[in-house]
Amino acid sequence: MCARYVITSPADAVRALFGYAERPSFPPRFNVAPTQPIPIVRLEAGKPVFALARWGFLPAWVKDPRTFSLLVNARGESVLDKPAFRNAMRRRRCLVPADGFYEWSDTRPRRPFFVRPKAGTPIAFAGLWETWTGPNGEEVDTAAIVTTRSNRSLAVIHDRMPVIVQPQAFKLWLDCAAVDATTAAALFVPASDVLLESYAVSTAVNRAANDSSELIKPAPGEVDDGADTAAADAPANPEEADKQLSLF
After folding, report:
1. Does the domain at residues 5-241 carry the CATH identifier 3.90.1680.10?
2. Is the pLDDT reported for residue 233 higher than 90?
3. What is the enclosing helix (H) or strand (E) of 91?
4. What secondary structure letter does DSSP report for 244?
5. CA distance linking residue 234 with residue 28, whole number of Å
6. Distance, CA of 182 to CA of 191 (rounded, Å)
7. Nearest by Cα to 155 from 101, 193, 122
8. Residue of 85, 111, 140, 115 lying closest to 203 (CA atoms)
9. Alpha-carbon distance 105 to 85, whole Å?
C-alpha cells in the first residue's frame, strides 16, 4: 500500500514534468498523510490541469462520510469492478506527483523504509479522483492512489507498492474519453527494479505531525526496541488506515 509519501521537487520541476499551465507554489512536504490536501494532475479539455484534492477517496453516492471507510488506496486488481472505484476508473483518472514514498516492513519490529527514484527526479502515481457533494451543496474533491504488487526489490519490505506511471504513458492514463478503463489498467504493473532505491529511515516518520528533511535520512544503526510500538501510528494496510482516519 501507500500510506505516506514525499513531494519535495521545486514547483517548476513538477510543472515541467506534467505540463500543466498553472503555476502553483507549494512547500516541500516530507510526510504527506491521508486526509491532507494533495496535488493531483487531471485532464480538462484535453490539457493537463493542476488541482488539489483530499487524500481519502469518497464516492459520490456516499450519504454520510462519517459512516464510510477512508479509502487511501485503490487496489489495481479490483478497480474495474469495485463499486467505490469503477466509475472513477472510467471517467476520473489522475496523476499524483511525488518524489518517493514510505513503506513499513511486514516483519517485526515493523521498520519504515523510504523508497525513491534513483534519478532523483519526480515521479507520478496513478490516482483516481471524485467530487463528493454534501447535503448543503458543499463540494470536496477526493483522491486515492492505485497500488499493485511490489517488484522484486521491494517485495522483501512489503507486498504492495504504488502504480508508477511513466511520462510516455501520462496521456494514456489521463485521457478517459479516448482510453477505456480496461486499456488504462494495463499500466498496473510493478515499477522496474532499476527505477527505485530504498533504505531504512527513522521511526519519526510514523507520526504525521513530523514533517522535515530529517525523515528521509538513512536511519543510523539498528531499530531499537521501541520501534515496534512507535510504528503503530503507521497504517500497515488500507483497512487499518480506514479505522484510524476520517475525512471529516
Report:
1. yes
2. no
3. helix 86-91
4. H
5. 21
6. 19
7. 193
8. 111
9. 27
The predicted model scores a pTM of 0.89
183, 61 contact by CB (below 8 A): no
Residue 181 φ then ψ, to 5°: -65, -40
Task: Please give the positions annotated as active site.
Answer: 2, 103
Averaged pLDDT of the chain: 89
Q: How far is CA 56 from the centre of its chain?
A: 10
Q: What is the mean pLDDT of residues 227-233?
A: 35
Q: What is the CA radius of gyration of the chain?
A: 17
The DSSP secondary structure of 172-213, one letter per residue, reads HHH-TTTS-HHHHGGG-SPPPTTTEEEEEB-GGGGSTT--SG
Helix, strand, coil shares of the chain as percentages rounded to 5? 25, 30, 45
The predicted model gives 234-247 an average pLDDT of: 39
Q: Report how far apart, in Å, the C-alpha atoms of 22 and of each of 19, 28, 39, 228 are.
A: 9, 18, 12, 43
Q: What is the DSSP letter of 57?
A: B
Q: Return the pLDDT at 221.
A: 63
Helices (H) and strands (E) in the chain, counts: 7, 12
What are the domain boundaries of the chain?
5-241
What pLDDT digit, counting tens, does each position of 157-202 carry? 999 999 999 999 999 999 999 999 999 999 999 999 999 999 999 9
- Is a pLDDT exceeding 90 seen at residue 8? yes
Query: Any idea what the Cα angle at residue 1 is, between residues 224 and 167, rounded to 5°?
Result: 120
Whether 248 shows a pLDDT value over 50: the answer reads no
Rounded (5°) CA angle 164-170-176:
110
